[in-house]
Please model this.
Amino acid sequence: MYLESGTRDAIALPLLGSELVCVVAPSRPSALIQIQPGPRPLIPQRALSPGEQYRFHFDMTKCIGCKCCVVACNEQNGNPAAINWRRVGELEGGHYPHVQRHHLSMGCNHCLEPACLIGCPVSAYHKDPVTGVVIHNAGTCIGCQYCTWNCSYGVPQYNPERGVVGKCDLCHNRLGDGMAPACVAACPESAIAVEIVNIAAWRNDYVAANAPGLPSAQDSISTTRVTLPPGLPPDTGRVDTQRIAPEHPHWPLVFMLVLTQLSAGAFGALSLLGRFEVNLLPIAASLAVACLSLGAAPLHLGRPAYAWRALKGLRRSWLSREVLLLSLFAALASTYFGAALLHLPLARPLGFLIALCGLAGLFCSARIYMVPARPAWCSRYTLAEFFSTALLLGPLFVLSLEPSPPSWLARATALGAASQLLSQGLKFFWLARSDPFELRASALLLSGRLKNAFLLRLALLIASGIVLPLTASSRSAFAAALALALLGEWLGRWLFFVSVVPKNMAAAFTAPRKAAA
Model:
């Protein structure tokens, strides 16, 4: 027991592990005057047992939306106002005059199956075996931002000044010293607490982690327990659904993806054409494009000097597999070009092996983006879009370099453009007719703010992929078609990145989504 409060006539002593307070008189310390409810401890009062971990408990009935927790977290971790490891969102529901408004405060949920950890190519995350806290190592991080795409709650946040990602770690150092995390200590209403959870029991029943304004806990089995207000209207939801904004375009990735797909498609066409030794210009140009695209890839990283670390996660990360396969693709193409230049006897199967590595690399590229936290990416349309680009640009690239190309190359280009058009059209109707908010929001962006760019992209597909290749008769005409097709595919990749609406927790009504402080 410890002394919490007292008066001239009585002293209140809380009973640990209980919500009861024992009140005694100083003159009669053995006499129990009354037992009344008292505050629950904000941090656990005992050590963890095997099979247990720490977690947050958020009581929505107490939160007043003051954002003291946000400010305390930023001060504790030295973050600027635009980067919030704990955020406060707003919810509303009901009908006049019975309208309710509530707030939702969330940090990291320290999930049982953390998506940020699973997707990290450099193993910058680990789940502490004793406390269960998901910890990020900034020294290992290369700033690829893949974890920010994987987390359904938007917990990991990229700091462009440092070039690395950061996230809430439950203030585990403070917790180890017996102090409450900064957000817990700062909350004036005691709406946030740290408690102990039995991992096995929670894995079997984690319904208390679900709440309006939050993605489903099923994505990664969030451990945060949320106490909801009684009588919550069934239509309660986030207030920011009408504030839909384009995402970051990731220009280095836009540039790299299209050129990689062009190069892989070109080597696929050349392997079928079988003219490696006859005309070295197409293979030299395709190799140059591959090297240029791979050289642009590290520009996306916050710490490009450590790009080599991306190979560490081959067992679980599609990003690591993409790096390996595309590097192997470029190495094999370089070897073949050198051998052809020296007139060394190399069989056609090596050409097929180069094309196979390139196409496998494209498959890994597409799988990087097929994550549940980005619903518009997490579909077979992403695979169709990437491979259609290769089928469109690869043969068209060879057509612009070959002096006497066969007619089937032009038909292959038209097939690639037609498949891309079909994929784009079907994807848009799928987005528009879907129930999840994030999918419908992507369709609203493409038909609203991004409408002109989307229509231009479709027009370029028709002109450069179907009309010009099937009517052109000279390399200059094919080169013009290639230039338009490249412009259209770069525009398509830009739309791919900016039109996705990620899963996230509810945001405030008046503040930008990513700056809650």
Summary: Confidence is low (pLDDT under 50) at residues 1-21. The chain is about 45% helix and 15% strand.
